[in-house]
Write a sequence for this structure.
């Protein structure tokens, strides 16, 4: 007589939380203003404003934009602000920084709005592997949100998780 195999993971109260499920769909664009500067280093206000005015901003419709300058130029804050005024009617989000910063900001906004009340006093495992670019900072923000309410926190997969936190018994 053989013993029945029991899947203890499936029968547990363990809740899997996958940040990838919250990935905001949409194209990400790194908008480098270096080419709009004289020799890639000098911002001439009149020329910069003219190029911005004549640029086709509609091609950024529904996209996430990270404004940056890949040269060592000193770019005043107003230059990025000016570009943001042109992008605002089209882009879903505009930030000053790189694509990783963009992802981090997007996830920060998502995690801030998350209702996690259904996870109160439950053991939670934060899924580690993802096929989408989930920034490391998003995991830290999630821990900050979950730790005050959950029973325990783990990272990884149910079959091989790393314990992170367990609420003290009172």
């Amino acid at each position: 007589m053989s013993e029945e195999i029991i899947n203890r993971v499936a029968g547990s109260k363990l809740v899997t939380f996958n940040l990838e499920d919250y990935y905001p769909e949409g194209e990400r664009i790194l908008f480098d203003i270096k080419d709009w500067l004289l020799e890639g280093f000098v911002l001439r206000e009149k020329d910069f404003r003219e190029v911005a005015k004549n640029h086709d901003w509609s091609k950024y419709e529904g996209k996430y934009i990270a404004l940056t300058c890949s040269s060592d130029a000193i770019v005043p804050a107003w230059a990025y602000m000016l570009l943001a005024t042109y992008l605002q009617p089209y882009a879903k989000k505009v930030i000053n920084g790189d694509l990783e910063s963009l992802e981090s900001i997007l996830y920060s906004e998502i995690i801030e709005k998350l209702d996690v009340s259904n996870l109160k006093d439950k053991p939670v495992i934060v899924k580690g592997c993802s096929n989408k670019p989930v920034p490391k900072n998003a995991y830290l923000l999630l821990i900050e949100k979950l730790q005050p309410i959950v029973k325990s926190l783990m990272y990884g997969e149910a079959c091989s998780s790393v314990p992170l936190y367990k609420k003290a018994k009172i």
